[in-house]
Specification:
There is one protein chain. The protein contains 11 helices and no strands. The protein has 485 residues and is mostly helical. It folds into 5 domains: 2-132, Methane Monooxygenase Hydroxylase, Chain G, domain 1, CATH 1.20.58; 140-216, Methane Monooxygenase Hydroxylase, Chain G, domain 1, CATH 1.20.58.60; 228-323, Methane Monooxygenase Hydroxylase, Chain G, domain 1, CATH 1.20.58.60; 332-454, Methane Monooxygenase Hydroxylase, Chain G, domain 1 (Up-down Bundle); 455-485, no CATH class.
């Protein structure tokens, strides 16, 4: 009775197994190689579930076969025979299911390679289109900093392209293998490869063009940055050069000239910068840069500004040279006026008296003064010549120079006239003093002779002849002295 129950239980289990196998046959037998990758993924999931179920059911089938063998060993019954027939049918169906599943696995693995290839192609195409859209941006930056930021971003983009390039090579290798293993799909695979290569080539071309445009934009912004730097520097130094400051003395004028020469040194030191700017601009123009119009405009502005700066420096130099010449003239005028002032006080002094010694001393002093006048005359002539040169060269203070020169020359003329008058006055005093001296000498001599003539010895008749001769000689001598005076 127990064995019969086991046989009926096995029959029920066999029936359930047969139903399970029947319900799973369609999953093992139905296969469409034309489904897309997503549908293939769903089908594969169902097939994976089938294989997992078959593993479980195989263990159950094995137990059923072992139990059937045990029942056969116990003896043949109607239930056992019926179950044996039923179990053989189940085993046959199981074998058919295993063969179908195995064939399905082989076909799936074969088809999955192609489907995976198509999926990789589509994924790569989506990626290329995404990157192509990113390259559609026309922003090339507004200044040097923004262009550099865009260049760094593009470098990251190029790193992504390098990874994509590796992906393309992998797809090519897969395609070659698939066309060899799947001749029936070779044409489709080749067509897919051609499409993806065309899109990839176009993307690389656009990326290279974008890189070149960013490079050109960087060059332009660097050029404009150099332009702004040079323009700012020229504006600043031109403002310093255009200073209206003028010196009030020779030392100050020389200091301003030295400082002005420092500006020239600074300008000359920038010659290399100007040359590099000019050369860079010419290179961009020769390369037919997209900003050629603006580049040419900035190039002309810098040229004109540099020329204007040099003219400004020269004009200021002329002004400072005139200032130094003017201060030298003023200094010479001041020295000449100081010299004449000290001499004028001598001419104005009323120190001429009737004493002989004083007149002689004044005459000697006047002779020294006369020599000094002659020595100073060359300096006065040089001063006048310097003034004429300043006026002829258009010095900014020409009117004052003319006025000061005329004033100096008039004063010099008065000084020379005073010298002449002083000399005449001293000559008259000297003549008067000499006449007074001679008159005093004659008077003394006459008194002496008068005293001699009145002596008693002259009244003695003795030697009257010799006394007469001696007296006559004294008279003649006195007359000669008087005449000579």
């Amino acid at each position: 009775m127990s064995d019969t129950c086991k046989a009926y239980q096995l029959a029920r289990d066999a029936a359930e197994m047969a139903n399970w196998i029947k319900s799973r046959e369609q999953h093992a037998l139905i296969y469409d190689e034309n489904v897309d990758f997503d549908q293939a993924e769903v089908t594969q999931k169902v097939f994976d579930e089938l294989q997992s179920g078959m593993l479980e059911k195989k263990a159950t089938l094995t137990e059923m076969n072992e139990l059937a063998i045990q029942l056969e060993c116990l003896g043949q019954t109607d239930a056992t025979l019926k179950f044996h027939v039923q179990l053989e049918d189940v085993n046959k169906k199981w074998s058919d299911l295993e063969r179908a599943a195995s064939e399905r696995l082989r076909l799936y693995e074969k088809a999955h390679e192609v489907q995976r290839f198509h999926w990789d192609i589509d994924e790569t195409r989506d990626w290329i289109q995404e990157k192509d859209g990113a390259l559609g941006i026309d922003d090339l930056g507004r200044d040097l900093r923004s262009v550099q930021a865009l260049q760094r971003k593009h470098e990251g983009f190029e790193r992504d392209l390098a990874a994509l390039d590796e992906k393309i090579r992998t797809i090519d290798e897969q395609g070659r293998k698939l066309m060899k293993n799947h001749p029936d799909s070779a044409e489709t695979i080749s067509h897919k490869q051609d499409e993806i290569h065309s899109e990839w080539t176009q993307l690389k071309r656009k990326a290279q063009l974008r890189k070149e445009k960013l490079t050109d934009s960087y060059d332009l912004q660097r050029y404009l940055s150099d332009f702004r730097d040079l323009s700012s520097w020229m504006t600043n130094i031109k403002g310093l050069i255009e200073s209206d400051e003028l010196a009030k003395d020779v030392t100050g004028a020389e200091a301003l000239l030295d400082h002005h020469q420092d500006y020239k040194t600074e300008i000359d030191a920038r010659a290399g910068v100007f040359h590099a700017f000019e050369l860079f601009g010419r290179q961009l123009l020769d390369a037919d840069h997209f900003g050629s119009v603006e580049i040419q405009e900035k190039l002309s502005i810098i040229r004109d500004a540099k020329e204007d700066l040099e003219k400004t420096w020269i004009a200021r130099r002329i002004s400072l040279d005139q200032c130094l010449e003017l201060q030298l003239f003023y200094r010479d005028c001041e020295q000449a006026e100081h010299w004449m002032s000290s001499r004028e006080s001598f001419l104005l002094s009323d120190d001429v008296d009737n004493t002989s010694d004083n007149v002689e001393a004044l005459i000697k002093k006047h002779e020294d003064f006369d020599r000094a006048i002659k020595n100073q005359e060359d300096k006065i002539e040089m001063l006048a010549s310097l003034g004429d040169q300043l006026i002829a060269h258009g010095n900014y203070a020409s009117e004052d120079v003319h006025s000061k020169k005329e004033k100096i020359l008039k004063r010099w003329k008065r000084l020379r006239q005073g010298l002449f008058e002083r000399r005449s006055k001293l000559g008259e005093s000297q003549t008067l003093q000499q006449f007074s001296r001679d008159a005093d000498e004659i008077e003394s001599w006459m008194l002496e002779k008068l005293q001699l003539a009145e002596e008693e010895s002259y009244k003695d008749p003795a030697n009257i002849q010799s006394k007469h001769q001696k007296h006559q000689v004294n008279l003649n001598l006195g007359f000669f002295l008087f005449i000579s005076e």
